[in-house]
Amino acid sequence: MPLNKGTDYVFAARLEQMKRCYGMSMQEFLEHNLGWYLSATELRFLRPLKMGDYMDVQTCIVEMGTASVRVEFNILFSADGKISCKGWAEYVMVDLKSGRPKPIPDWIIQRYSLPDDPIS
Q: Which residues contact residue 113 at a Cβ distance below 8 angstroms, ignoring those fewer than 6 apart?
């Protein structure tokens, strides 16, 4: 799996999880002129995914900074649940008008602050 595909899969899974688990779609961020930009990532490729393989992606917020979140993830084979790739990604909250980092607003922190954020 190419590196850019791995980060694309994780970001897509994270967008889906934000909507499903926190009730916040990306559209809501855009309406507030906010976006998430990938600032750093680490991927550990353990088993290759091949054309035609199906996968599941699990994500979990493990750290929240002033303007960033760190998300851990696993990319698993759907067939047997074995991990193909695992790692973390750091996303920075950005004001879309200025393009500059912006502190994560309290309303977002409150919605992200679930008692447990299991990798799901």
A: none
Whose tokens are 């790692």? That residue is: 87
Kindly state the tokens that stand for 84. Answer: 């193909």
The reported pTM is 0.81
Within a domain: residue 50?
yes
DSSP character for 23?
Answer: S
Region 16-20 average pLDDT: 79
- Can you give the CATH number for the domain in which 28 is found? 3.10.129.10
- Cα-Cα-Cα-Cα dihedral sign, residues 22, 27, 29, 31: negative
Residue 117 in domain: no
93: tokens are 């909250």
Instruction: Write the CA distances from 16 to 9, 23, 27, 34, 68, integer angstroms.
Output: 11, 10, 12, 17, 19
pLDDT at 78: 94
Range of the structural domain that residue 65 is part of: 3-112
Q: Which residue has the tokens 């002033």?
A: 66
Number of folded domains that form the chain: 1
